[in-house]
Amino acid sequence: MSADLLIDGLSTLYTCDPSAPGLGEHRQVSLAFAEGELIYLGPPAHAPDAETVIDGEGLIGLPGLVEPHSHAIWAGSRADEFRRRLAGASYSEILEAGGGILSTVAATRRASRQDLAENGRARLVGLRAHGVCTVEIKSGYGLDPATEARMLEAAWDCGDTVRVVPTFLGAHAVPPELKGDRAAYVRQVIDEQLPRVRHLAENIDVYCDRGAFSLDEALEILSAGKVAGLKLRAHAEQVAYTGIAAAAARLGATSVDHLERLPDADIAVLAQYGTVAVLLPGAQLYLRDIPPPVGALREAGVPMALGTDLNPGSSPVHDPWTIAALACILQGLTVEEAVLGLTRNAGLALGRPELGWLGKGSVADLALFRPPAGEPPDVAGLVQQMAGHRAVVLVRDGELVFGA
After folding, report:
1. 200 and 145 in one domain?
2. How many of the other CB atoms lie within 10 Å of CB of 130?
3. In terms of domains, do 361 and 226 share one?
4. Angle, nearest 10°, between helix axes 264-273 and 244-251?
5. What is the pLDDT of residues 23-67, one digit of tens each?
6. For residue range 329-387, what is the model confidence (pLDDT) as tens digits?
7. CB 347 within 8 A of CB 112
8. Number of domains in the chain
9. Strand, helix or coil for residue 38
10. Of 153, 131, 149, 132, residue with least CA distance to 140
11. Which of 39, 95, 164, 350 has the greatest number of CB atoms lying within 10 Å of its CB?
12. Neighbours of 167 (CB within 10 A)
């Protein structure tokens, strides 16, 4: 069988295949794609003929990266907030004073769908350049039915850039017009926003924390989302412990994210229910926070994914490789854990187990990288050297996106 695309003689490939040990490392291997699928992975001598052939000598191959936690659609700037945090103001203080998320809400409400999509697409092109094929995009900067829907529509408009996984995050904060009336806003999220956006989203998320939503409110919103057919996720145990991580896991959440203040007893619950822990070291760095309990998560066997948390305020990070290095340096992940966090475990966090690995049953996504100057073709160099690594070849669904 002839192929559409052949990557010939790739120096090193990491398939991240769950059936293989470690990262599924192969040396001197070829890959062939046809009709949107991976049809060959093996020795170069037996590779099929192909219409397009790319020489893989000296390159590192990985599954197309997966971004499992982003807020990539927004309008406005939070640079002034950055100055305030440098001067000593906390994230919660800024939020409670009407800044933070609420500042972005005002700008996003004024923006058109076209403007939101144009800015979002530019951010996604940046992520794609680093080898990302799939990006989860949250709403949550509208806080009213019309703007939440417009944000998700703009996210779908960006699907020509990357594979988009849209998440409804109406429960991000209480809008200023309700003057802190959380009960009234919870009803709006469930009764007005959710029916309007359910066909635009795959997941529902909620920000349960000090200054945001209580445990009972968060569970009411997630339960309504579950009835509407959405997969569940939660911003959990970041600023203060609330119990949402364990409660969301029991409700069937695919992931809980942040987790700086996650206790051991709740880690056991995540392990019991197979819930993925999404770690966000960019937010930890920008907020000067403590790390999540990585050692205890590892010991319990909880899968750990990594996200940029790309947003305008608390984690304006556009590079997953920077996140991988920070996860190792600030949070104690190994190189192998960081790579799985950007690939297979990130797909699991989205409830999309076909993402982030290469093999029978996976999507046909591949990213090729040159090692840093003077380094061997080993993924450790990509993680260790915080150099904003860019893919030289990207394949999504078996189709060449860029590179030759």
Report:
1. yes
2. 23
3. no
4. 10
5. 999 999 999 999 999 999 999 999 999 999 999 999 999 999 999
6. 999 999 999 999 999 999 999 999 999 999 999 999 999 999 999 999 999 999 999 87
7. no
8. 2
9. strand
10. 149
11. 350
12. 24
